Every structure is written in C-alpha cells, then in structure tokens.
C-alpha cells in the first residue's frame, strides 16, 4: 500500500537530461528519507556516459547523517513505481511543471509548516548530490588535438554531444599548422598561409621539425635548407633552437605551438559552446624522443592546457580502428599493419588486438586490448619532401622560360607561391595523369604556366618511393614476425593517397590495402576517445592501450671495486631499464646494493644498433639526465649504530623507482634506502584484542614488500663512454622515512622493513629546459597576445554588427510594408542616421573601440525599435486572430459536449465559468479589432500580438484544467464500477462454489481422474496441461461427457484456475545470458559518444 503521508521529490540535472534523484519521505516521526536508486542513470544522447546510483546513495547517506532525527532506508523500486504510476498520476497530469508538481503535492498531502524542514532536507540533499556528482570541473568537455606537421585536427566530446571533429571559423575540419604576425596582428591557419605567401618570414610552419632541438641538430639544419627565409639561433638560456622574428623578438617553437594549441582550444569551445576546455590529449609522432616530448608538454603548459596524455599518433589511429570493432576481437591475437605517411615522416606500426584480462582499476577485468608490438619509421620521408621537389621543378621550368633575368630561387616570396602551387599540384596528380600549373604574377609581374604529368612527378621522387617499403620491413622485424602473420594492412595519412606509394606498399606486402580508416581524422578521433576515458567526467567502455618503447633507456653508474692486488679501481655498470619494444606505461625499480656512500648515475639511451645511424644523430645527446643521490651514509649510520641486544640489521641497498608514463616520458619518482631490521625478544602474553589488532595490521600491511613488475638488478658491467657535461635545470626532493613491520607471535623474530627516502638532484643533460621565470615570462607574453586578439575580435564583431544593421535598415525601409507603416518624416530621420553611421564607419570610425560601435548600434536600434515592432504587429495580426478564432471555436465545442454528457464529470459552476470566459474573449476581440481598424497604420497598435496570446492562453488553461479533472473523475468512476463488479462476481462465485464441486465430482467419476483435481490451490500449470491431454483422450472415448465437461470449464473460469500454458525456458544457459548482457552493456557506440 501507498503510505498516507508521502513526499516524492525528483531533481533533474541540467547537463544530464535523464539523470534523476528520487527521494521519498514517509511519515514524520521520525522523518525517514528514502532513496530509490536506479541501476544506471544515463544520458539519452550518450549511452556510454553513465553515473552509478550507488554514488548517489553514498552522498545521500553522508548528507542525511548530519541531520538530527533522520533515518535512512532504501525505497524499493516497485514502491517508487506505484507512487509514480498510481497515487502521483493525477498530480502529474494537473501539474506537468515540476515546480508546480512539488508545491501541489505538498498541499494535497497536508504538508505545511510542521513538515517543511523534512521537505527542505530532501530538496537540499538532492541539490547537493547533483552538484557533488557532476561538479563544474567534470561537466565540461574534453578534447584532443592531432597536431601534425602540416595540419591540425581538433576533436571534442561533451555531455550530450558525441565525439566529433570541431570545425574552424571557415567551417572546415582541419586547419593548417601555421601562425603569422603582421602589422601588430596575429593570424592562424589559412590566414597565416596567405600572409606567408607575401611575407614568408612572418609566417611559421612545420614547427615540429624544430621542437626540442638545438640549432646544430641535423633535422634543424634540414629545416633551414628547406625554408631558408627563417633565421634560427640558439636560445641564450637553454641553447635550444629559437626563431629570430625581428631585432628585439625571439619566438621559441614551444611558444608558437602553444599559440596553435590555444587556437585549437578556441575551435573546440566554439563548437560545443562551452568554456573553458582545459583537458586535452595531444598526438605526437611515435619517434619523438624524451626532449621533444617534454617540449610538447611545456608548450601545452604555456597554453594553460592540462595534458591528460601525449599519445603517439600511430597508436591513436590503431585505437580508433579498434573501438569500432571491439566485438570482432577474441583471445587469439589479430595483427594489423598500419602504414601512415604524413607531411614530414612515415611510420609503420604492427598492432595486436585481442581480449585480455587486465587489472587497470584494482580488480581483474576482461577487455579488448591493442598492443603496439612493432614500429618502423622514416623521419624525412613524407609529402613535404615530394612537394619541395615539385616546387623546385616548377622553379627550374620558370627560369628556363626566361621571362625575366632574375632567378626565382633567390626570391623568397616567389618560392613561397611556388611551394603553395606545388602542394595543390601534388594533390591533383594523385587523381589525374596530368595537369597544368599556373601562378599569376610569380616574379617581376610575370605569370607562370606549365604542364606537369604524373610520370614527371614520379621521376622527381623516384628515390623517395624506393624508401617506402623500409619502414614496413622494420615494423615487421621489430615485432618478431613475418608478413604471413599479418592479417591486414591499413593505410593512414594523406601521403598514402599518392598512387606510387600504394603501388610500392602492395609490392612488399602482397596483400589488399585496407582503406577503411579516415586517413585525416583517425588519430584525432582515437585520441578524443582516450581523452574521454582519462577524464572523470565520462565513463566509456574500456579499451586497454599498450604502447611500445622505440628508444631503449638504461642506467649507467660507476662503482669502485677492489682488485686482486688490493688496488681500487672504478667500474662502469650498465643496467637496462626499458628495453626496445617494451610496453608502457610501466614502472621499474633499480637496485644499487653495494653503495654505502653518496653516488650518482646517468639515465641514457640504450643500444640503438637497431636504428639507422642518421636516427641516432637526430637524437642529439644520448645522455638524458644525471641523478645525484645523497644521504646514503646517513641512512646506514642511523640504523647500524647503537643496536639493541637481540637486534640484527640487513642493509638491502638503494632502490630507485622509475616510471615510463602514458606520455612516454621517463621519470624518477623516488629513491630510498631499504633496511631490514630483525628483532628477537619475548613479549608478555597478548590479550585476544591485541592479537586481533596484530592480525589485522599484518593483513593490511601485506606481509612482504611487494616489488613492482620488471624490477631490475645490476647488469653485467662493460666499459663506459664519457658523458657530455652541460648546465641544466635541477629537481630536488626530500621525504621522511617509512617503516613496515611484520608482527609475529610471542618469542619469534620481528622483521621491520625501514625505508629512508634519500635526497635527489636530477640534472637534465639531453637539453637544458627553460627556468620557471623564463616560462612565466613567455606565458605572460602569450596572455598579452591573446588579450590583444580578443580585443581586436571584439572590435571587429561590434563594427560588423553596426555595419550590418545600418545596411539592413536602409534596405528594409524601401520595402512596401515599411513604407505603409511609417511616415515620410520617420523614414527620413532613420535613413539619415544610417547614412551618418555608414560614412563614419568608412572614414574616421573604422578603428574606433568596440564600446563606441556598440553605443552607436544601441542608439540606432532604439530609434528603429518602434517601427520594427509596428511592422511586425501588422504583418502577424491576421494570423494570430485566426488562431484565436480557432481557440474560441474549440472551447465552444468542448463546452457543448461537456453539457451533453450523461456522466457528471464537471460541476455547473465550472461550465458556467468556461462559458463566461468564452463570451468575454469574443467581446474583447470585437471591441479591440474595431479600435484597431479605426487607427492609421502609422499609429501605435491597440491590439497587439501579446494581448491576443494572453487571451488564447487563458482559454487553453481553462480547457486543460477541465480535461485533466475529467480524466481524474472518469478514472475514479471506472474504479468504482470495477470494484462493484468485482464484488458481485466474488459473491456469485461463492454462491456457485457447491455447483462447481458437484460437477467436478461427476467428471472425476466419469473419467476416473484423481480426486480434488480442480482444487485451485493445488493445481499447477503442468498438472493443467496433463489434465487437458487426459480430458481430450477421455472425450474421444466418451462423447456424452463433453457437455458435462464444458459446464465444468465454465465453472472453473469463475475460480481463476491457472489455465495458462507454462512458460518455456530459454535454451541458452544462464552463463551465456549473462555474458551477452555484459557484452551489450560494455559496448561503445562510437557515433553516439
């Protein structure tokens, strides 16, 4: 039964339309707040975005416990359903608005002042729950930025919106990676490319080739050879490559990339109409080394972005492939070879897909997993090199035409025009066998025009095409496989559209080339899925990602050894930390067991013999960092001196904890000295409570120290190479000691593991990073540039709004409807004002401030507002009057039908009230219409659209009230009639009970059936089925009894005997049902996320 005193409160979240909190208060002494949890609260636009009901319940309990006199219970769902469908139904119909519903329910249930506190408690708890579970930080969107050498793609996902590519201001799905400065303004994308065509030095492109490198790096030298318009110098502080913009300005690649990342964030924010967006996953090339990855993280920090992860672009593309096909993977590995040719580089990747058991969130789960098991790459093979060769070919053709004595190669602006034309030509020749290249005013006002064939293009790039297969060979080889083990080859990247590239790939793999992935957007979409997985605001179906190490990392250190002759010499020890193709993220512990004093070690790149010699040179310094450890002797002395009797100490040595995080960056998290102390002494007899406490302590301490997976010890020694010396930034950490004790019973040794945290001084040696002060200065400069851009955009928007409005007014005032509704004096005044505004805009006011534009726009709108309203009133009045007429006619029909009904669903007063409202509305309409017709069109209307709408709403409210009340009264009458009929049927059935028993006895006697077969309390569906089959046989044998049997059946129907057929159980085992359900619940629909 439904309680007499019930308050039902439902609070909805604005960001999750379907998320509900149901709180039910039953009784008032003491007040009981009841939560009706649903299995899952989910958003209809995004089934993968779910909030568990137990999270709601925990917060409700936490809040309600703080309120005195409140008890908590769990309200069964069926009670909630009865409340919603039964008792609450009439109130839902009367008050469809939620606020009105709550107020009406309170009044109808007699909940006033004495119960208002309990009501407020439920509402406050609900509000707290919504704010706690969906905090502002979690409700915002997350994004991914696929930052390539040439193009940037931005993907975004937010509550209520699936994963999608964000469009830029030109409504395009990809944006050129370019930023330019001209006349004090900063522009991006295509605008920057246009600036670069005229002023090549002012526009910065292909910035990834310079990021995190010194000017003498071979890749930087190659960049300067390709783009000689730039001047690159060494940063005075760090020695890294920076651009000299002018005599007083230097821009680092990190700053320029930060500007582009911030612009990508703006595209995402405008696309989802949500600010701010800070959480991002950024793609980087798989071959990025430690210095380049840290530089990208610095760029994101300058852009005020929170990097959830740097994901390799090949891994992001592989993830995008997998999330669409998660049902296809089994425990048997499926190996896919991805070939990605971009603008600057080429990467081949072997990815293995399978269902695997993982312990990602503290418990074992079975999820699909993609593991990168093989990688091959070429850092200089890409579409850019093809475009540059085509550019040089066009320049040679122009010079050969001898249209001007000047050499086009010596004119940066002309070469930039040819570079742009070469890019267009390369794309066209991918689909056509020949094309005509043409550039207007290339040099000395001379136009260029020349035919180019695909054969010529392939001849120019013949040696590049011969290098296509090598990354494929390296990827398969590093995976330890052969081509027979590869199930499919998938193309990624715009460079794979070149026919000759596809031909070379096919020649090597001898397999059909898959083109199922979107070559431009695969990495961005895979990265945004990863962003949603990393963000606490979303819950997506797990897809485990295991990336692979390309450059092995090792630890080198010097240890003193005593020779046979008693002399002491130094010995260099090298220990592998993260080997080639090791999966990451992962943690490692490096042990230094024989060091008894302060020492240092180097973190270096390991054996690079598996890479070409040019790649090793591109890495720069092979010494990543130098780490100095201090406090070793102090830790030893602290625990070796003054030992108590019966105590022994075992020095386990120094343990350094490393992690290769999800961004592929090696980090030293902590260094500690471990001492194992064994103490033997007798204890007094322990009480049962004490023994219980020791047992619990031992259980939670885990007993033994748990080493992390892949722990390394000292490796065989080899001769060391001298390391580079350079000034570098430092990082120091100091912490306190930690002790773990394994308690034992009386009289047995007590073993204590003591960890003394040591002091760390880490000095980066591969590149010197900017100081905190330098980063703060650069961040401030970027903020100033952003503020200047925002101010300029605000001014441009205000100017455009004023200009558009003035032109719109001038155009509309020539239209017939405006001429009829205005006097000539009004038109002259407004048109003169518009003319004044236009003249001011095109002369003195073009560079005015945004406030001035808005002020003039406001003034112009105030002078035209009455005219626009008057025209709109005249234009829409006939239509609104027709609507009013329809409403009046419908109300009259309803009144007539209500009066003609036999059932008295409405009172006489209610019907008279409706008739009076109809009559008053008709009189008001006729009066106002006559007044309006008497006025000129240029006068202020006396019959407005809002007045007509109010009259319509009044009729609509009255009719809805009567309709809802009619439904309620009809339902009550139906219930009364049903109850009456049920009572009559019950009495009749009781009266007919003796007759039924007599007829049943006749059947028993005639067919020799078991006694009491027709007893409803003992009849089962199986027995009924048996009875029916037996009766069929008996009826065939004894037709005279058919009439008696029919009478018995009619009598048994009154007793509600279970004559239904039994339910047939599903042929599937229960375990299969569960697995199928789990699979459907864990599946991600990528198009809906």
TrEMBL record:
Residue ranges the record marks as coiled coil: 968-999
GO biological process: endoplasmic reticulum unfolded protein response
Compositionally biased tracts (Basic and acidic residues): 1073-1089
Composition bias type Polar residues, residue spans: 715-745
Domain CHHC U11-48K-type: 40-67, 72-99
Keyword Zinc attached: yes
GO MF term list: ATP binding; ATP-dependent protein folding chaperone; zinc ion binding
Region annotated Disordered, chain positions: 704-748, 1055-1089
Keyword vocabulary terms for this entry: ATP-binding, Chaperone, Coiled coil, Endoplasmic reticulum, Metal-binding, Nucleotide-binding, Signal, Zinc, Zinc-finger
Protein name listed in UniProt: Hypoxia up-regulated protein 1
Organism: Notodromas monacha
Similarity comment text for this entry: Belongs to the heat shock protein 70 family.
PROSITE patterns per UniProt: ZF_CHHC_U11_48K
PANTHER family per the UniProt record, alphabetical: HSC70CB, ISOFORM G-RELATED, HYPOXIA UP-REGULATED PROTEIN 1
Predominant place of localization: endoplasmic reticulum
Any matching Pfam family: HSP70
InterPro entries: ATPase_NBD, HSP70_C_sf, HSP70_peptide-bd_sf, Hsp_70_fam, TRM13/UPF0224_CHHC_Znf_dom, Znf_C2H2_sf
The keyword Signal belongs to this UniProt entry's keyword annotation: yes
GO cellular component: endoplasmic reticulum chaperone complex; endoplasmic reticulum lumen
Superkingdom in the source lineage: Eukaryota
Subcellular location(s) per record: Endoplasmic reticulum lumen
